[in-house]
Design goal:
Helix content is 43%, strand content 18%. A hairpin with a 4-residue loop joins strand 2 and strand 3. The strands form 2 sheets. It has a 5-stranded mixed β-sheet with strand order 3-2-1-4-5, sandwiched between helices. A 5-stranded mixed β-sheet has the order 8-7-6-9-10, with helices on both faces. The protein is globular, with a radius of gyration of 20 Å. With 352 residues, the chain is an alpha/beta fold. The longest helix is centred in the last third of the chain and has 33 residues. The structure holds 5'-O-[(R)-(carboxyoxy)(hydroxy)phosphoryl]adenosine and zinc ion.
Length: 352
Amino acid sequence: MIVLGIETSCDETAAAVVGDDRRILSDRILSQLDEHRPFGGVVPEVAARAHLEFLDGLVAEAIAEAGVGFADLDGVAVTGGPGLIGGVIVGVMTAKAIAAVHGLPFLAVNHLEGHALTARLTDDVQFPYLLLLVSGGHCQLLAVEGVARYRRLGTTVDDALGEAFDKVAKMLGLGYPGGPAVERAAETGDSERFRLPRPMKGRPGCHFSFSGLKTAVKHAVDALPPGPYDAGDVADLCASFQAAAGDAVVDRTANALRQFRDLHPGSDTLVAAGGVAANAFLRARLAALAETEGVRLITPPQRLCTDNGAMIAWAGVERLRLGLTDALDFKPRPRWPLDPDAPPAAFAGVKA
Ligand code: KG4
Ligand code: ZN
């Protein structure tokens, strides 16, 4: 069984072909970095236009590289949400057209489900597992109990972690995209120079908060001599921020592991996914936690942590195997919680 996957929910146009034997036959990604860089962040309208311009060509490349034809496919999967709606519409319309023309099953995949199931593509991880999903739009801890079966244990009450990385980068003039730039700058920095808060650390539960940390970084930046900032100051501040964020994530994840083991005694797998899981410092902190807690940590390779088409194709394979196909009148969803039954976090401004 082979499935074409299309991803257009943010600033990456991506198409891939993946088999149910976990082989990635092709995986094409076009980042719109140059389009968005002048604006210091993703502009939804610019993103949608770029997806429209490049998606058809990218799909053709993915099919050709896989050495197959459309007629060889068993299904077409596409991110149906959540995300920037203009881009999602471009992907969904394209996927529907391919499915209709070639008489193929159509699969609308939740972008978060794509991240959530990637570890099964890369490492054949069995259900259930605890998932730390850290990306630009989301920061959640979920018990992954099966395809389409997710139990949200924690979420952010304000910013997502990737968003915090991006904002810190912007404050320091490190440009866009922020996460990798902060990680690079932090490598030579002193993580103890700036005293920054560890939001939520020590509190019960496993919700996240990053706005207080972000504000503390802002105050520290304001206290620096006016820019352009000294490279040493930037390195120290990035390292201090990353250490604070790492402490917060480890604390929340440790609590989630306890909850997860109560739900699923004997389960021993922690998976980290989403763009921020590409961060080597965070991976090392999570690896140390996993060792202390006696669980194994699975992190997909960096390229499959950030947005890509292979994760959508794979989620399509998983859904197709279970007959979870969608009708061609599927409507793109700007918001689409993985666990609609999750109790709201006990604060204002919670993201789904
Ligand atoms: O999963 P992703 O590609 O897109 C979303 O679904 O949001 O995640 C993008 C986010 C951005 O906020 C980016 O700055 C962050 O992941 N990111 C990183 C790193 N690489 C990407 N954050 C920290 N360290 C990194 N190395
Ligand atoms: Zn993503």
